[in-house]
Amino acid sequence: MSKDLSKNIIDKIKDDKIEPKAKWNFILKDSFIWIFFIVSIVVGSLAVSVIIHLVKIDLNSFAPVDANFARKIGLLIPYTWLIFLSIFILVAYFNLKNTKKGYKVNPYLLITMSIVLSVIIGVTGYAFGAGRSVEKTVYQKLPIYKTIFDKKMGYWHDPESGRLMGVVVDRIDEDYYLIDIAKEKWLIHYSEELPFKTKIRLIGEMIEKGEFRATNHLDSNIGKFRMPLCERKGECMRSMR
Amino acid sequence: MAKQPKLDEKSDVELVRLTLEDQAVFACLIERYEHQLTVYVRRISNFCEEDIEDVLQDVFIKVYRNLNGFDRSLKFSSWIYRITHNEVISRYRKQKRIVKMSEEINDEVLDSIVAEVDIEGEFDREETGKIINMVLSEMDLKYKEIIVLRYFEEKSYKEISDILKKPEGTVATMLNRAKKQFNKIYEQRFK
Q: Which residue in B7, B64, B157, B160 has the most chain A C-beta atoms within 10 A of its own C-beta, making it the best mutation to test that interface?
């Protein structure tokens, strides 16, 4: 077979005019792999920034809520962004694995490297406000994300479960009048000062339809992190009605 | 082709460089690897001779097309074995033929395999060779291949790592599992 095979192959190369691919093809392929890896890490890092941003906000928001620990954790986890992060960590891993030397490294180490890189860059990005602006942009541009977010925010308008969301419009003695997001008027009993004309969330108990006893409140400025809900009150209200 | 006798003495890397200048030089690389790749494909795949020739033709054409992408940090032999491995895997998925291995096993290979696995009993060398072939024929491709690369092709862990594109630690683990599977099949069939 020897003489035949080499002759056949050389003949085929000549007949079919087969040429070695140019060097730039391989350089381009390697570059694409590295570029995709970098893009995946950057996108994953942005997801980390958003996760920190949302968890920090929600930690403040849900702290006073009377729910068990598991329920609070369930409410705190930003599932959408975690899925997003996982996808891009996997993409980064596959790109890294497909680099020239990638196969030499243990796959678990590659995944760990991708996660660590995403977290380091993500935390840095968060410190520069990336989490907040990315989340805001995605909310405005991606309808599906808006739907998911608004559904989560709907948690805050459930008077029977002790959560009420709306704007204080008047005060009579020790009580307040609040218009909720469904345009219903409520008499609020609360011993502390409440801000007017600002979207607030109340925690307490419903005495009867239209009357609510509040034990705690959250307004638009909890610590240094403003709540997305309050920035989006108009949109949120429309979608929850 | 004005083939110079000197070409046979040149290294693989030099032949790659020369092939990029003159395609006729590629015949030297084909002749250098044709036999060992034929035996390798036969051992891991159980393809018929016609299919083996097709595989080799495709392998060499792929090698020629991708000469500029050859990573000089690898041994050329590791690279060409990797391409052959990929080609066999892709064909193997299309046509799983079960034919017993018939390739003769030389004494050195036979001794190294017997030293690593648990073949016991009063077998002469010819019988032991047949047993090894029969057991290998029944093994999973991934395990059979690693045994073939390690003991028949006498590749180092690093070379196997480069051929299969797996970390060296994984190669060691796979080799252990391959030996276990070998012993299990041997026990089921011959004990």
A: B64
CATH superfamily for domain A155-240 = Nucleic acid-binding proteins (2.40.50.140)
Confirm whether the ipTM is greater than 0.85: no
Q: Domain B107-190 maps to which CATH number in 3.40.1190.10, 1.10.240.10, 3.40.190.10, 1.10.10.10?
A: 1.10.10.10
What is the per-residue pLDDT for A219?
65
**Residues paired with A188 in a beta bridge:** A176, A212
Query: Please, are residues B1 and A7 in contact by the beta-carbon 8 Å criterion?
Result: no
B121: closest CA of chain A, how far (Å) = 39
- Per DSSP (E only), the strands in chain B are none
* Contact between B68 and B86 (Cβ < 8 Å): no
Please state, in angstroms and as integers, the Cα–Cα distance from residue A227 to each residue in A66, A122, A164, A218, following that order: 20, 20, 16, 10
Q: Does the pTM exceed 0.90?
A: no
Contact map slice: B 30-69 vs A, CB within 8 A: 30-31, 34-35, 38, 49, 53, 56-57, 60-61, 64-69
Number of H helices, E strands in chain A: 9, 7
Q: pLDDT below 50 — which residues of chain B?
A: 98-100
